[in-house]
Amino acid sequence: MDERLSRILEKQHYHIVGSHSGVKLCHWLGEKLLRGRSCYKETFYGIRSHRCLQMSPAVNNCTQSCLFCWRYQGLSETGLDVEDDPESILEGAIEGQRRLVTGYKGDPRTTPEMWAEASEPNMVAISLAGEPTLYGQLGGFIDACNKRGMTTFLVTNGTEPEALERLDPLPTQLYVTLAAPNEEVYRRLCVPLVKDGWQRLIRTLELLPDLNTRTVIRHTLVDGWNIGWEKEYARLIETADPMFVEPKGYVFVGYSRERMRNSNMPAQETVRAFSDNLAKETGYEVLAEQGSSRVVLLGKDKRAMRIGDD
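RESULT FIELD:
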């Protein structure tokens, strides 16, 4: 990793792991430890917020420069020249998490029991920054997580369908971000760094029904950019046939503030209206929502929501 980038990320409270991976505490981990407030993943799926490790094995490598992305994009690369060992990445990520949560130990709002649990994460959100599927040993990393009994959520922008086809084992839950209803909006909002990004995303959607894992389509909703095309989104959802759909509002944070405006952040009422319209178009039902995260969950079976219950 470029030394300048490493310094920038460390100032933003990342823990750098090896040559291309990183860990950063999620806002909701702190909220759970200090105030007992949980994120939508706990509300929807039963994941305990304070035991979730947020990381990426490709922290500076991506095939898109999305305008709504909060990460630093000044030195982005579209591939990995050298790849670290999966086991060493997981070990380094867990050690990084332990170092980052140290500061909560002495806070009277945090119980010793919850702090100890936060130091032993049992869930890995492979979603922090970059495009994780660019890491060629991603299957080995997920396997290492499985051996520790850790749940894995993988978030991808869908531009690497070949990586998903050969991914073994698959994560506990696979997210594909679908932030545009058509190629024109995709090019303007997601700014692909590969010439056939939209076509590759469509191939990923076509692949999803055959993947033997929990699948989710994530709509990152940006007011003034990609809201109002529910019919077009519905056709794409029909292709992907996911278990769940998550319309989630863009949040005006990080480096996205250099590209977006506060007015691009939709209110929960807007996210819910979009979700209600999308439910009518797709036959999915609104199963849950969490206003603090500006997110709604659509699905066909409420009983399948929580991990381990389906």
